[in-house]
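PROTEIN DESIGN WORKSHEET
SECTION A - STRUCTURE
LENGTH: 1037
TOKENS:
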């Protein structure tokens, strides 16, 4: 294998750029993105400095272990066209590293230690930065926003722990270096660290969850078990050397201890990137990919989720091995090994590919050296996406091949290469038209690769096949894609011409395939037929079925994102029922739908999709559109993936100017405008995840549309209520509903209603869901629903009902030993007791929750509990303790970039300063909260802050401004059904009118408050009754 060796040289010219990169990565802004042009320029500057002769894909770098080289940002190498980090990425090799234990692991399961760390404070007095001269409260040691969401990462690992992923996982919490030393000296195959790092150190925890810095230079004093083959340091700066000349990076330290493979990050890595990277990498490892290719595929997953080079380029693979095939962690004998050579790539794709992950993994294994299979046979009904899958596999994994040859039986031959090569050959003249054109097309492809096929004079069919296969063999390691073979097989007198039944293949075709399999190439065949008599064991058969589940959702989302028209969910649901997840017919039907064709006409056209070539259907539809630029643009957006632009222009005779305008718009357009039509009565629970995901995407693109989307989605869910109730009446549906995820979709819809304050509607949907889980005896989901219902009652101010449901959830969680569920429900109980005014009980439950959450390392929820404790101490009048917990919450929210809860904490601080009498400071924090909440569209939290503003202006004597804020709040509370808080607001308005000596209006609002307090058994009921009696006396005077 060729490598590039780089010895320590003068790299000082890059030092300013390196410092800039570190500064922007640690700027405290989780969504900060460096200027792409600047990053490309830096990468190209580095490329020209160290690779004057160019860089071949998959060529590893051999570096001296010197800070001047190790700290260079190799992951951002840019060859003038692309970032090399994505495909395939940089592998660093250290020639003077440890010897490396290179033996592969041969066992049925892998054993992995996962170490999670989320320390909050530091002992180092030099790092203490007081934020308040009076309280001396300090910032966390690292104020980065890149602290991982530990709960999500744990859940990702638990998905891997057991079938179908053969990885056994031990989750650990560390206390200083003693626990760390124990873990790295145990018998594990993989050690995974998730947390924060600094230059030359890991941030572990001590006994009270404060930072303990473990330095790379100390690792040689600890030692590490030589069974360990891979160390994954999924934290910031774990590949960066310390500041002193002799300080190692953590990656280098592990390599020096004879660990053969280390994955680490040179810069900071954000929450989303770290979580996706973890899940994708270990799934690929469990499928048998080598470490190098598992990381490469994980990077591709990051890119497909919209992440940019500064996200997917950060994780680096370090190794002391020059042979990347040694990086195998197979879970059983005979797993795939990945060869690493540069190759010719196909031309750029025009659309993103959605779904088919399992099929792609199977193809990748065949491509990457599984000797049992010489190729892949992709078969399925017409329009199922066979060609798209074959081309996607070539785009993803094509760099492993020296040349790629693509030929389609449905593609016109560019010229009669076969006849020109041997005009007198009797064997050539006897070939049928389709076979003749197909072989000519292969020869033309080879000529484009500067490979001429030399045919013997008078060649027969077998001579031609052998000549072509010999030429392909001379290309080296090649990939041959033979597409839509059913068209030429008809000329081989196939006995059965249906899509559904297996067919027998003429021996001539087998001779042709066999001639290719003798050479060093991999073959992909696509056809509507399953070839039953191909040599057994030589082809991996992949049957494409209709899309379903998440892949179907992804497919719809990709369609939505490519259009500028209004998705009609009534029609889409009907199309789903007719097409059953068939990709092309869905795409075609939606295209017709958007041109205004009635559903009946669309379904009538479906009868022709198996009788006529799809090109004919496209041409026919475009003819009906005329020369309308908008219509043509939408048609092109539907069909450009299939390479039909020239055919559209040719068949339809469209004006060249209009065609070019439409094509230009197609290339510029990136996201559709948002609008939905009313949803009619039908069964929509299958559409909930699709609509929800679509709304979230559009909301991110245009936050102002959030409220409109909220109303649309709430309407979608409520239209399901009648169907849900029917399900409950029919027990025979329960098992089907549950195991097909519809129950989860419905419950998520209720969560959405709860979030936006439609509490009665949420309870009406939660209750039938509760009946379902009881019948299918799923206690975990039952406890979750009890908790959710309790939360709704808490928000409604019906605290005794809330506590009743929380206790039901606690009983189940205790029986199941679900400590995470217990921690959350204890926190909810604390909130309820606080609202009820039983403050000591509130603190008791908050402390129970904190004790568990700190053990689990879930700092996000810890921050929420800190908020509750701060509010409780404010109500108790213990203001010093209150500010202590509010500031703790703010620091964590800022680290995580959680602006929603940051806004709530600002509201809490406003209440705190209001309690201290510092009214202007209270208004300052309320204004901060309102600014965020208005942007987010969180109307209920916004209303509470409005009410607090009214309280402050009331105290300042600015009574008209107070009434204005109270009225804003009361409108929201009334509309959402929060009768207790609405009652408080009316009480406050009544109190203001007392100050204005308007006893009649005061009596009116106090009576409204009394009526609402009576409904929810409020503790304020008696007080309000006394006020009403006094008002009556004043009015009667």
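SECTION B - SEQUENCE
RESIDUE ASSIGNMENT:
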């Amino acid at each position: 294998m060729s490598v590039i060796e780089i010895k320590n040289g003068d790299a000082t010219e890059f030092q300013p750029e390196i410092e800039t990169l570190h500064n922007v990565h640690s700027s405290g802004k989780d969504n900060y993105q460096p200027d792409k042009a600047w990053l490309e320029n830096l990468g190209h500057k580095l490329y020209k400095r160290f690779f004057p002769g160019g860089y071949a894909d998959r060529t590893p770098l051999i570096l001296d272990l010197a800070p001047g080289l190790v700290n260079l940002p190799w992951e951002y190498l840019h060859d003038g066209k692309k970032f090399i980090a994505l495909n395939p990425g940089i592998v660093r090799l250290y020639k003077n590293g440890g010897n490396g234990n290179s033996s592969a692991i041969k066992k049925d399961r892998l054993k992995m230690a996962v170490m999670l760390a989320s320390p909050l404070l530091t002992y180092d007095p030099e790092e203490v930065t007081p934020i308040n001269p009076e309280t001396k409260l300090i910032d966390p040691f690292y104020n980065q926003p890149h602290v991982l969401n530990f709960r999500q990462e744990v859940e990702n690992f638990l998905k891997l722990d057991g079938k179908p992923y053969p990885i056994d996982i031990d989750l650990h919490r560390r206390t200083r270096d003693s626990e760390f030393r124990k873990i790295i000296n145990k018998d594990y195959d993989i050690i995974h660290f998730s947390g924060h790092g600094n230059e030359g150190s890991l941030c572990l925890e001590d006994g009270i969850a404060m930072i303990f810095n473990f330095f790379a230079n100390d690792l040689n004093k600890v030692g590490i078990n030589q069974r360990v083959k891979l160390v994954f340091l999924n934290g910031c700066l774990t590949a960066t050397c310390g500041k002193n000349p002799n300080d190692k990076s953590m990656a280098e330290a592990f390599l020096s201890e004879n660990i053969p493979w280390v994955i680490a990050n040179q810069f900071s890595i954000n929450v989303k990137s770290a979580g996706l990277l973890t899940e994708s990498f270990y799934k690929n490892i469990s499928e048998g990919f080598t470490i190098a290719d598992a990381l490469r595929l994980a990077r591709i997953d990051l890119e497909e989720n919209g992440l940019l080079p500064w996200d997917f380029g950060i994780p680096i693979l370090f190794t002391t091995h020059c042979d990347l095939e040694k990086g195998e962690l197979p879970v059983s004998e005979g797993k795939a090994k990945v060869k690493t050579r540069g190759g010719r790539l196909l031309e750029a794709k025009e659309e993103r590919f959605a779904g088919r992950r399992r099929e792609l993994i199977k193809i990748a294994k065949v491509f990457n050296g599984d000797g049992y299979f010489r190729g892949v046979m992709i078969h399925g009904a017409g329009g199922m996406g066979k060609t798209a899958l074959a081309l996607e596999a070539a785009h993803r994994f094509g760099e492993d091949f020296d040349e790629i040859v693509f030929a389609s039986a449905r593609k016109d031959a560019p010229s009669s290469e076969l006849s020109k090569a041997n005009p007198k050959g009797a064997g050539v003249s006897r070939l049928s038209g389709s076979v003749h054109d197909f072989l000519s097309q292969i020869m033309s492809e080879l000529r484009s690769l500067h490979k001429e096929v030399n045919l013997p004079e008078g060649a027969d069919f077998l001579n031609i096949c052998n000549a072509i296969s010999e030429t392909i063999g001379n290309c080296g390691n090649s990939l041959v894609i033979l597409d839509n073979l059913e068209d030429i097989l008809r000329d081989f007198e196939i006995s059965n011409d249906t899509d559904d039944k297996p067919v027998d293949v003429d021996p001539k075709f087998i001779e042709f395939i066999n001639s290719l399999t003798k050479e060093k190439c991999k073959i992909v065949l696509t056809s509507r037929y399953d070839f039953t008599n191909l040599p057994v064991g030589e082809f991996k058969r992949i049957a494409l079925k209709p899309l379903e589940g998440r892949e179907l959702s992804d497919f719809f989302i990709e369609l939505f994102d490519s259009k500028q028209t209004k998705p009609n969910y009534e029609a889409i649901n009907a199309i789903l029922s007719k097409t059953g997840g068939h990709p092309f017919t869905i795409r075609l039907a939606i295209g017709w739908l958007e041109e205004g064709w009635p559903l009946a006409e669309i379904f009538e056209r479906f009868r022709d999709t198996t009788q006529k070539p799809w090109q004919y259907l496209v041409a026919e539809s475009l003819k009906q559109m005329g020369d309308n630029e908008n219509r043509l643009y939408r048609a092109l957006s539907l069909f450009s993936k299939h390479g039909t632009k020239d055919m559209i222009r040719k068949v339809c005779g469209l004006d060249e100017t209009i065609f070019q305008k439409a094509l230009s718009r197609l290339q510029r357009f990136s996201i559709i405008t948002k609008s939905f039509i009313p949803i009619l009565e039908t069964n929509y629970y299958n559409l909930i995840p699709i609509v929800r995901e679509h709304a979230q995407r559009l909301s991110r693109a245009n936050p102002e549309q959030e409220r409109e989307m909220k109303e649309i989605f709430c309407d979608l869910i409520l239209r399901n209520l009648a169907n849900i109730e029917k399900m409950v009446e029919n027990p025979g549906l329960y098992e089907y509903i549950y195991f097909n995820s519809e129950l989860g979709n419905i419950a998520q819809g209720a969560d959405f209603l709860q979030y936006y304050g439609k509490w009665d509607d949420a309870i009406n949907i939660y209750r039938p869901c509760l009946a379902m889980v009881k019948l299918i005896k799923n206690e975990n989901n039952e406890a979750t629903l009890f908790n959710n219902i309790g939360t709704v009652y808490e928000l409604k101010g019906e605290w005794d009902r809330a506590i009743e449901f929380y206790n039901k959830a606690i009983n189940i969680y205790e029986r199941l030993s679900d400590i995470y569920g217990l921690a959350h429900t204890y926190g909810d109980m604390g909130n309820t007791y606080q609202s009820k005014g039983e403050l000591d009980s509130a603190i008791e439950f908050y402390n129970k929750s904190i004790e568990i959450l700190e053990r689990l390392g879930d700092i996000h929820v810890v921050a929420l509990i800190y908020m509750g404790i701060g509010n409780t101490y404010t109500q108790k009048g213990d203001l010093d303790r209150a500010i202590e917990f509010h500031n703790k919450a703010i620091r964590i929210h800022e680290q995580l970039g959680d602006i929603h809860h940051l806004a709530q904490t600002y509201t809490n601080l406003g209440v705190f300063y209001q309690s201290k009498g510092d009214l202007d400071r209270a208004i300052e924090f309320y204004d901060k909260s309102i600014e965020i909440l208005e942007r987010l569209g969180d109307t209920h939290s916004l209303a509470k802050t409005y009410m607090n503003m009214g309280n402050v202006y009331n105290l300042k004597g600015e009574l008209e401004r107070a009434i204005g804020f109270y009225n804003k709040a009361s409108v929201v509370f009334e509309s959402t059904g929060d009768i207790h808080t609405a009652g408080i607001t009316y009480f406050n308005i009544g109190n203001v009118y007392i100050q204005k000596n308007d006893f009649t209006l005061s009596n009116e609002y106090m009576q409204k408050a009394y009526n609402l307090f009576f409904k929810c058994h409020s503790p304020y009921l008696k007080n309000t009754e006394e006020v009403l009696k006094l008002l009556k006396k004043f009015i009667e005077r």
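SECTION C - NOTES
The chain has five domains: 1-340, 357-543, 549-671, 688-758, 778-851.
Residues 549-671 form one domain.
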